[in-house]
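[09:14] KT: can someone run the structure on this one? pasting the chain below
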Amino acid sequence: MAARPGTDHPPRILVIGGGHLGLYAAQRLQQRLPPGEAELILAEPLTHMTYQPLLPEVAAGTVEPRHVTVPVRPALPRFHVVTAEVVELRHADRTARVRLIDGSERDLAYDHVVVGPGTVSRTAPVPGLAELAVGFETLGEAVFLRNRVIIQLALAASTSDPAVRRRALTFVVFGAGYAGVEAVGELSDRSMDAIKTFAELRHEKVRWILVEPTDRILPEVSPALGEYTANVLRARGVEIWLETSIASCVGGRVRFHGRHAGDVVEANTKVWTAGIRPHPMLDHTDLPRDPEGRVLADAYLRVRGTPGAWTGGDCAAVPDLTCDEPGALCAPTAQHAIRQGRRLADNLVADVRGPQRNGPPKPYRHRYAGSVMGMGRMQGVAEVYGVRLSGTPAWLLHRVYHWLMLPSGAGKARVLTDWIFDALFSRDISALAELQEPHKPLQTAARAPAPSTQTA
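[09:31] RB: done, structure tokens below
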């Protein structure tokens, strides 16, 4: 696989990334291209795809972590799956450099490449942020936060120091877009439910602070729906600090700029959800990109001016043909990535087969349906085709939509079972903290003195 052995071999298609774009494009390719017509390869550092819209429910303990994942190998039996991250893409040479999980590297040659590595959290040069805060982009981060909330409640219930208790019961979330609002909505609901099981904390209050540098939360929805959401959170006791940004969080002491400049909040838990940026892997490619670092795509999901390269999803600047505004781009959402993956695959097949066999490629066009969001048990907001919903109807719509969009029948069954158990029984408050430090038990045992072999 290091080099193409000759032009008489079937074209080799390399898909980079097993997220929403990559998985759906790959599934479509293996459906459309019979064995022998193309050689299919997927490069992905994880062994699974994560359905990210349900990460807030994983963090709340409503859904088990593995139930929102799709193992890529069973889902893509026609693909040769390489568990590795792409570290360099030399499209001029049709070669990708990959790094395996053991650190070794190898080259993969290809004829067509689908570039969909996704995004990572957009960080800021804030002292202490990278060391003390946790993001909300990955399954591991969601599981960590689920455990973290329970551990901090247990700490608060066990200490006799009021300052330690206040820090343990204070949670700060930076960024009030979808990720931040869903995080604070689900986690605050979770904490307020869990605290009832701690007799020592019956007179204590969990403090949640949502920090946003602009003058409103949820810029993705209408101002009216954003204001409703803010009112729901405030009624729950969540503090919303608008026109405020973080200055420092060294030593757990959070300082701010803006409207709350001068305030200092001591908190053991800081959650960072202030935006995303294209995957840094794209810095090591020869593909054209826009000023934000996104790969430039045309309406057919081809990399602009680059034959043999295709892209879409969060890492790409894809024209939005349904918008009248000049230069409008598709929003970085799963809704677009899933549909772009399918359209991309169809256009790639048309390119491989030629217009005589398959017809011409078709542009990607999808009018954004809207948004649905959960904020804890029986609370949600939605705006679908201009219709606004809130409360229980929006919460139900959120669950139905994401259940239908889960790309695995087994996953659908497992998530539905999780929801039924959550409705019938109280939530489990076990904090599996040992998962964060798997080496600690053996290290502790190794430092312990050896037992005496002498008898009295």
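[09:33] KT: thanks! Residues 235 and 250 are 31 Å apart (CA to CA).
[09:34] RB: yep, looked fine to me
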